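Researcher: Good morning. I'm working through a list of sequences from a screen, and I'd like to move beyond sequence-only analysis. For each chain I'm collecting a predicted structure so we can compare shapes side by side. This is the next one on the list. No need for commentary yet; just the structure.
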Amino acid sequence: MKKVISYIVLGFLSVQLLNSQALPVVAPAQGESVMIKGATIHTGKGEVIENGVITFRNGRITAVGKDGETAISRESHRVIDATGKHVYPGLIMTMSNLGLSEIGSVDVTQDSREHGTINPGVRTLVAYNTDSHAIPVVRSNGVLLAQVVPSGGLLSGTSSVMQLDAWNWEDAAYKTDNGVHLNWPRMSARAGRRSMYEMYMGEGATGGFESSFKELDKLFTDAAAYAELDKPERVNLRLEAIEGLFTGDQILFISPSDVQGILASVKFAREKGVKKLVLVNAGEDAFMVKDFIRENKIPVILSTVQAMPAHEHSDTRLPFKLAKMFMDEGITVGITFPSSDSGFNLPFAAGQAVAYGLTKEEALQMVSLNNAIILGIDDVTGSLEKGKDANILVSSGDLLDMMTNDVVHAFIQGRDIDLDNKHKMLYRRFQEKYKNGER
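Model: Good morning. Structure tokens for this chain:
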């Protein structure tokens, strides 16, 4: 008991220590109209505009074009001279635990999963912590939106898309409860010692899936029927949580472990009437059934660009090549770097794929517009177009290059975001210390 109390006290003190560190102040709503001129504009749709100009008012983009060829009155705008710099759409991180996980070794700072196997009513929206110190760090490298997802179990719950500068989760909500997450278990036996462990634990090739599948099957059948009712006599919160899967208002994000899991999970979802599917954690196994994925018009999310190959016989550089390989098959591809403590590497994961077949604009699209398409928010963000939200980055160098990435301005819905963070604060602190000869 004393040991448990000690862990709780340690966790509480750790959280208090984190919160005692200053966080950037949340930006107010956009006041004056803004013009960024003279930069190279990367629209996120493959188009590059040299010596470009972009304007936005009340949080929306009002014009994008070449400076001197776009009729805009400079007198009515706050002008930012970005000559020699680059302008990009804000990056979007999918499949993230940002705001749900702070310190990996402290349980009380982990809030991404609930007990149980099937949890349709779990909502990451209300658990999202806007005071997380990981958020400003991720934001400083260009990530302005994140899909915050639950984990664990067979059906983890629902995810929401959050904008990364807010006082509370209500203000942060960008697209609420639009994703449902299904973790399909391994359908084939593993090789080696892991297989022996699963057999010993009674998990086998399909794990404890069979006992849970009947409940999952019934839940989807009931939810599909519930979605057809205009006014149910009794409100059922479990069914309401996922009824959007059968009306097209929600997306089913499937995370299978092997080829058989991909085929079985997609077949299950289609038979139940799910309208929109996305395959996450796609890798070498997914590419083995690329024709099946293309025929079913399923987008894929790659989260293993900077990873080891899945199999001993695989090309050692295959993870870097997969983005180009899927794209060449006509499959919509998004790239993510989901961990909250290293999500700032998202632009560099995309940049890594440039050396293995993608152009820089294609790589940018996979972390901006393609991710917006996958999340169903491409009508308002993901690219720099008139009428879309002003989620905009200005970098003095190449955003996708670790050596030159230097975001000097960031705007979320037109709000000028403070790009300071704990890493920068510590850098300034110790730079000053050693400059003065301290040890």
